[in-house]
Amino acid sequence: MKRIQLSRERRRRAIALTSAPLVAATLLSGCGSVTGPPTLTWYINPDNGGSAARADECAAASNGAYQVRIESLPSTASAQREQMVRRLAAHDSSIDLVNLDVVFTAEFANAGFLRPYTADEAARLTTGMLPAPLETGMWDDTLYGLPYKTNTQLLWFRKSLAQQAGVDPTDPSFTWDEMLKAAVGQNKKISVQAQRYEGYMVWINALVLGGGGQILEDVQAGRNAIPSLASPAGDKAAEIVGSLARSSAAPADLSNAAEEQARATFQSDAGMFMVNWPYVLAAARSAAEEGTLAQQVVDDIGWARYPRVFPDRPSAPPLGGINLGIGAYSKHPDLVVALVECINEMPKATQYMLDESEPSPYAASYDDPKIREEYANADLIRESIAEGGPRPLTPFYTDISGAIQLSWHPPSSVTEQTPVETDEFMADVLAGRRLL
User: Fold this and answer.
1) Contact (CB, 8 A) for 359 and 381
2) What pLDDT score was predicted for residue 110?
3) Residue 386 has what pLDDT?
4) In the prediction, which pLDDT does 35 show?
5) Statement to judge: residues 272 and 294 lie in one domain
6) How far apart are the C-alpha atoms of 253 and 194, rounded to whole Å?
7) Bridge-partner residues for 67, per DSSP?
8) Which domain range does residue 173 map to?
9) Taking the CB of the first residue and of the last residue of the chain, which one, N or C, has fewer CB atoms within 10 A?
10) What pLDDT, on a 0 to 100 scale, did the predictor assign at position 16?
11) What is the pLDDT of residue 34?
12) What was the pLDDT predicted at 328?
């Protein structure tokens, strides 16, 4: 998931707010001769200081019960997973709290790397949250990952070009096929994430779910789960990917495009449509303020719900986000729960959305006047998250995603045979007959 860089002034304020207490906590934990409250270590995704600010506030509010040390994980989800798997497999007790990409919660829970939330904790800590993000933190009917931030994708379009093409992307029945026809007719581009990485899997999964299918059936069966791309939904997903990739609407860098490459194309003279996360509007506004993007481009940006696969079936917007997992080997699990309860309060999640452009998992955040002032599309974001579709919640997600990325890349190679071939490959990978 993507984030934008804060202004220099905001970064300065965040650093000033958090540096002194966190340094003190680090010195305290590193000096064996000094006694005091335990220091809880929280492994976070890199951000612009929002998590550190929350940690500092909660350490101060604990009345000396604990201090918090922040450790930043690598910037990519795969590198984050690698580091945490290696350390937790070694029973690392220094991992008290960890930010987990939603696709890894099931794997970590199944491996015994996470301390489950009790039923009472789950009921208390999830009050007011949207149901879809909560689903990503569940495994075996137990909450292992508490939504910290969530995310979804919207359809972004250039209003002037859509008008010229005679299409209305905000129409509930607007489809990928209509979008492709309009872009080709205007000799413009459709920006997606189709590099061979997790963002490509996000697109494919959304297409399959939007078509009424599933990438994997019976996920609880683990390695015996059933690959199910060979279906009407999978076939239509392959048709959409292949047709776009082989059309004039495909950007030249399609097979290497991640979020920022897609945004650059969309904001250029060639751009017309894009699927991407909500951060792009704030990023465009910031670029206009800095003078690197014309204000008329920002004013021409419209947004709508993720496009449909079939006109008579609602889309399934991608669902992303980060969950809070308690390390199974933490020496202070009760204090970690207290920390989680503090850092994940609804007002803090709302403020994080304002500071970091990362959507809140709480439904009420989107009614906050400051959110509504900053996000003209707040209702659409909340709706898209609430009705969003998760990627397969399986302990073997890395194998599933890797098999699909290999089989569907480059996008121009995707044909009607791809779903069948992918199912066979996934089944072999899960059974250990083939390696990624």
Assistant:
1) yes
2) 96
3) 97
4) 76
5) yes
6) 9
7) 39
8) 154-316+396-431
9) C
10) 39
11) 52
12) 98
In angstroms, the Cα distances linking 181 to 107, 231, 247 are 40, 24, 10
Token couple for 58: 């909660």
Residue 73 DSSP one-character state: P
CA angle 138, 222, 144 (to 5 degrees): 20
Does residue 391 form part of some domain?
Answer: no
Q: What phi and psi values does residue 115 have, to the nearest 5 degrees?
A: -85, 120
Check: pTM over 0.85? Answer yes or no.
yes
pLDDT of residue 195: 98
Q: Which residues of the chain have pLDDT under 50?
A: 1-33
Query: What pLDDT was estimated at residue 220?
Result: 85
Q: How many domains does the chain have?
A: 2
The pLDDT of residue 345: 97
CATH number, domain containing residue 297: 3.40.190.10
**Given the structure tokens 């890395």, which residue do they identify?**
398
139 in the same domain as 67:
yes
| 396 CB-near residues (< 8 Å, 6+ apart) | 107, 222, 223, 225, 430
How many residues are listed for the chain in this entry? 436
Which residues lie closer than 8 Å to 126 by C-beta, 6 or more apart? 134, 143, 146, 147
What spatial distance separates the first Cα and last Cα of the chain, rounded to whole Å?
24
Q: Is 308 helix (H, G, I), strand (E, B) or coil?
A: strand
Residues 28 and 126 in one domain: yes
Phi and psi based region of residue 226 (left: phi greater than 0; alpha: psi -120 to 50; beta: remaining): beta
Residue 17 is predicted with a pLDDT of 36
Amino acid at 333: P
Give CA–CA dist 390/345, Å, rounded.
24
Name the DSSP class of 93.
Answer: T
| Torsions phi, psi for 270 (to 5 deg) | -85, -15
Residue 151's closest CA among 340, 345, 349? Answer: 349
Cβ proximity of 281 and 95 under 8 Å: no
Q: Where are the beta strands (DSSP E) in 196-267?
A: 216-217, 226-227
Do both 173 and 138 map to the same domain?
no
Question: Are 147 and 321 a contacting pair, CB within 8 Å?
Answer: yes
The answer to whether 108 touches 144, Cβ cutoff 8 Å, is yes
Q: Are residues 262 and 369 in the same domain?
A: no
Burial class (CB in 10 A: 0-12, 13-18, 19+), 33: exposed
